[in-house]
Mitochondrial protein (Lithospermum erythrorhizon), 132 residues
Amino acid sequence: MNLKLKILESEDIFLGMEIARSHEGISISQRKYALDLRKKTGKLIYLSHTRLDIAFAVSLVSQYMHDPHQGHLDAVYKILRYLKQSAGKGLFFKKTRDRTVQVFTDADWAGSIDDRKSTSGYCTIVWGNLVT
């Protein structure tokens, strides 16, 4: 059996582990893996572009992504369970003779009970189809 040994450089990634050498010793971490996990949950924001049914909930929990409490995490898990049940949902644009563009907007002033910030929202309807 002929085995080849790879000599790791001062910083290298091996089997998903980041290995860094210095004069003080060797550091092994899974920083990239941890960041990738965070990005996967953060991708809910991109999914909400085609899943308007989760857009409000995702935007709400995203406000607490840097300091989530158990209630926020429970809400994210609920969104993920909902998505598992409704994976085929998305946008549908119907044919119509209506050639108008409508925009509706609303806001409240300091309406958040958590931080007294204002909340605003809008929707755009193009040719009878909701697009934003």
User: Anything to note?
Assistant: The chain has a mean pLDDT of 78. DSSP finds four helices and six strands in the chain.
